[in-house]
Amino acid sequence: MPATQITEYDIGDVTVLNLSGHFVLGDGEPGLRNRFDALLARGRMRVVLNLHDVTYIDSCGIGTLVEEFKRLRRGGGDLKLVCPSQRCEHVLALTHLLPLFELYESDDEAARSFSRSLNG
């Protein structure tokens, strides 16, 4: 099972996290939680999560997405998703969580949406 890889970069005040591989309990899930802890400690409250290269996600991975979404929202931030793989989008739809997240086609488009939501 391919381990989850997480890469990070910033577009202005938005942090982009690119995930790849399997996002499951004991693999990517704790790493993503730790990454969010570090982001929140630095005051990075606007996060884009690119799921294009996630090949498998389990209920713990979904739970982590929801938990971090709620944690960011409580702190005045937000979490937006980019290009969830077909597998991820299917699991989000099955769990009725797809409407919870804003979905975008690119990291840049998702990052720009934060500015629009402030001005709208």
Would you give an account of this structure?
This protein is an alpha/beta fold and 120 residues long. It has a single domain (5-115), classed as STAS domain (Transcription Regulator spoIIAA, 2-Layer Sandwich), CATH 3.30.750.24. 43% of the residues lie in helices and 30% in strands. The protein is built from four helices and five strands, in the order ββαβαβαβα. It has helices at residues 28-41, 59-74, 86-94, 107-119, and strands at residues 5-11, 14-23, 46-57, 78-82, 103-104. It has a five-stranded mixed sheet, sandwiched between helices. α1 (28-41) packs parallel to α2. The radius of gyration is 13 Å and the shape is globular. The model has no long low-confidence stretch (mean pLDDT 88).
Number of strands: 5
CATH topology: Transcription Regulator spoIIAA
SSE arrangement, N to C? EEHEHEHEH
Tell me what the CATH architecture is: 2-Layer Sandwich
Q: First CA to last CA: what distance?
A: 43 Å
Task: Describe the structure concisely for a colleague.
The protein is of the alpha/beta class and 120 residues long. It has four helices and five strands. Helices cover 43% and strands 30% of the residues.
How are the SSEs ordered, and which strands pair?
Elements: E1 5-11, E2 14-23, H1 28-41, E3 46-57, H2 59-74, E4 78-82, H3 86-94, E5 103-104, H4 107-119
Features:
120 residues, Transcription Regulator spoIIAA, five-stranded mixed sheet, globular, 5 strands, alpha/beta
